[in-house]
């Protein structure tokens, strides 16, 4: 049961289905599948809402980051474009992880790679943390409470993973 290449829709579901080969699902396995199915419609609705509000969320986040770090555009010629690209990418991957209800998917497919890139560029942990907290705050402000509640744990994972993976002594946001 794979919907996105070789990645399972939800690792727990994939594990359950693999473990049940040659037998019937037990009641606890069935309960997990029912819970996933019952929340799927709400997660799909949240993803649709996030998609529709993505331009506003990203634009407001980038403006706030550039306002908080005015020297960023002077030090990086493509700061606005890069920030817009990165915010869009993070929001989309967080939304897909929310749909899948799979934080490990977000960590494995985006955050580990992105933390390595950000560290290589030399961004300070506090700058990255501030940036992704701004994305989280902006998204929660723009989205309905229901969509925000579903997306928030995944955005929080971005804040924690990206900010904490950078060396404490890294250079200031150039």
If you had to describe this structure to a student in words, what would you say it looks like?
The structure is a single chain. The protein has seven helices and two strands; from the N terminus they run E-E-H-H-H-H-H-H-H. The protein is mostly helical and 174 residues long. The protein has a two-stranded antiparallel ribbon. Strand 1 (2-4) and strand 2 form a beta hairpin. The longest helix is centred in the N-terminal third of the chain and has 42 residues, at 27-68. It is elongated, with a radius of gyration of 18 Å.
Give the class from helix and strand content and strand pairing. mainly alpha
Tell me the fraction of residues in β-strands, as a range.
Answer: under 5%
Order of helices and strands: EEHHHHHHH
The radius of gyration is 18 Å
Order of adjacent strands in the largest pleated sheet: 1-2
Overall body shape: elongated
Instruction: Report the biggest beta sheet as strand number plus sense, adding barrel if it closes.
Output: 2 strands, antiparallel
- Model regions low in confidence, pLDDT < 50 over at least 5 residues: 1-8, 167-174
Summarize the amount of helix as a percent range: over 70%
Give the strand tally. Answer: 2
Determine the mean pLDDT: 87
Distance between the termini: 44 Å
Number of helical segments with 4 or more residues = 7
């Amino acid at each position: 049961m794979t919907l996105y290449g070789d990645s399972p829709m939800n690792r727990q579901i994939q594990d359950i289905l693999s473990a049940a080969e040659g037998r019937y699902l037990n009641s606890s396995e069935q309960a997990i599948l029912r819970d996933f199915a019952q929340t799927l419609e709400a997660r799909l609705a949240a993803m649709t809402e996030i998609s529709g509000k993505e331009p506003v969320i990203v634009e407001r986040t980038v403006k706030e980051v550039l306002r908080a770090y005015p020297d960023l555009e002077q030090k990086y010629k493509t700061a606005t474009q890069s920030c817009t690209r990165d915010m869009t990418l993070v929001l989309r991957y967080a939304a897909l992880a929310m749909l899948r209800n799979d934080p490990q998917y977000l960590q494995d497919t985006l955050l580990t790679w992105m933390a390595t890139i950000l560290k290589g560029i030399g961004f300070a942990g506090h700058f990255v943390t501030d940036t992704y907290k701004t994305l989280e705050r902006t998204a929660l402000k723009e989205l309905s409470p229901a969509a925000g509640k579903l997306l928030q744990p995944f955005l929080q994972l971005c804040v924690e993973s990206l900010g904490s993976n950078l060396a404490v002594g890294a250079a200031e946001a150039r």
